Amino acid sequence: PDRTCVTRTHVANASSATEMAADGGISSLQLPCVFSPKARQYLAVCAQDGRLRIWNTDSKTLHQEYVPSAHLSATCTCIVWGPCRTVKEGPQRKKRKSEAVQVEGKVDLLAMGTAAGSVLIYSTVKGALHCTLDGGHSGGVNCVHWHPEQGLFYSGSEDTNVVEWDLQTGKTRSKWKADRAAVTSLCVSPDGKLLLSAGRVIKMWDLETKEVYRKFTGHSTAVTTLCFATTRPPDSNGLYFLSGAAHDRLLSVWQVREDGKDKNSVVSFTLTDEPKHIDLVASNSKEEAVRLAVVCKDGQLHLFEHFLNGPCKKPLSPSCTVQMSDSKASPLPIPLLAAALGAETRSVMLAYGSHLQPAMERAEIDTTERHVCLTRDVQTSLSVSMETTVSKVKTPIVNTKSKVLVPGLPGHQAPLKGPSTETEKRKKDADTTEMSIAERLHEIDLSAVSGRKGAPKVEASLQTDNFAVLLVQGLESNDASILNKVLQTRQETVIKKTVSRLPLSAVLPFVEELTKRLQGHPFTALPMVRWLKAVLMLHTSYLASLPDLVTQLGVLYHMIESRVKMFHKLSRLHGKLYLLMTQVATNDSSSTVSEVDHTAKLVYEEESSDEDEASGDEALPHDDSDRWEEEEGMEDEEDEGDEEEDGSDSRTEPKANGDEDMEHGNESEEE
Prior knowledge:
Layout: H1 2-17, E1 33-35, E2 42-46, E3 52-56, E4 61-66, E5 76-81, E6 109-114, E7 119-123, E8 128-133, E9 141-146, E10 152-157, E11 161-166, E12 171-177, E13 185-188, E14 194-198, E15 202-206, E16 211-216, E17 223-228, E18 239-245, E19 250-256, E20 267-270, E21 275-281, E22 290-296, E23 301-306, E24 320-325, E25 336-341, E26 347-353, E27 358-364, E28 371-375, E29 404-405, E30 413-414, H2 422-430, H3 437-443, H4 447-450, H5 456-477, H6 480-487, H7 492-500, H8 507-518, H9 522-538, H10 540-544, H11 549-552, H12 554-565, H13 567-592, H14 610-619, H15 622-646, H16 648-652, H17 657-670
Parallel strand pairs: 24-28
Antiparallel strand pairs: 1-2, 2-3, 3-4, 5-6, 6-7, 7-8, 9-10, 10-11, 11-12, 13-14, 14-15, 15-16, 17-18, 18-19, 19-20, 21-22, 22-23, 23-24, 25-26, 26-27, 29-30
């Protein structure tokens, strides 16, 4: 039991250290979640707003909740359970020697490191703050760890220092610089003589002299996990510890050798993602295997069992991988938050679901199978129940003259109509059920804003504010009707203004919702492209700052690549089909055209000589020939007059018959 309590304390530190990012800072996406040592009676979870919630794993209820005074400015960065100790609970009568029973240690103290540089010690027995450790760090606390036996406490910070605290006096006992970068992880050896600290480089310190005993290098990013795997002393070459780094899918095992030749890791455990929570049962001898449970960032649990007796060239894969999913027709994965190994090899305590209301159970896992999937029915409604009295919130009655401002965006007014008659008041008093979110949304009158005249600019802004509020509410409640009402608009200005008014916390869920809708029919997916374009144009800087953007938008990337991949081939096929269809259409139209009548409506022949005139006169009708002869006589007279005026020009340059005929023809046309 003593060995289990000691190793569990180290494991709690490893789980809290996994909350650090690659640059040594605290990751806001990963929240500290730690089981208590020994019996695993409690689960401590720290929320983003700094609230500490302690859940009872037996009754599955909220046992205690603590809100620090500076929980908004100094959020919690790491939490670690202290070693079990005997606690006096009020005055008790003296027992006789025959009634004397060995008192077992209880889980009491819990340490919380804050971003302001202070450490809070919380007592679960008292249900209040035990003490506050201030003045040791000038930067945020990244990691904390308890000494297994003495009343000492260690903390590492952004200011690159490690502080040794005395819990009895609440003051610093010693302080030294541990690294050039921020200290992101700490771990004390089982015998309490050595201390591991890590930033980019892992250092082993002698706690008596505060000098470096060994250095270990091999991680390119900040080390977030440190945990001793054996309890053997270092002089026997049997002391091992494991380490994990941010954005690294390997857990490295290091051996502390007596000759100092321990520059490289001896064993590596392969994972599917970055480790988030680690639980370990250390070995006391070479014949005893090390049991390891690792919860990764992707929500999977990996179980390992290995004998540490020297180097191993190949990375070791997990002996069993556990996943959880819901019991719906199309099952969705349920993320695992933490895991704790039991006394038996098959018994594992699991915490899964949401940080606001985690589900806890002790499961029996068949480790002979490589992959195990557990199906559970997780309730989506959040109902945080306390063991003590629960305060009921009463909704006030709103009159018709008053206006309710919905929290979220300015300019959005939602008039709620109150009861007008006494009968309606009685009915409302008799009905104890409160209005749901859908019923309240139906009460919002958007037509009152659109019906106003004389202020088109104000109308557009209010309409956009309404859309932004409805969009946020639809994303939070996952209501398809609200989302359809907002996304059916096709006006570019409304889309851009609505997207620009979205809070940053709703951008990524909105992109995921658009990705789901884009996977449908192209006709229905076409309006979603406009919304996605507006999001990418207006929130590019926020999306680029996300560390896991590629994994979160992987579905969208694959869908765009698959659709664009066929676009070139489809365009070529469309061109060929267009040419074929136009050719077929022209052939059909040419076959349907009727035969053309080639007979001329009017025939005109020019006269080149007298013979041609005779032949032409014979060919034309009688009335036309007489008219043509009269015109020719008049033309001859005019020609003779022109020749007398011209004089020598007409005599020296005689005209050809063809030219004369052409001139006659032109003159006739002028007449």
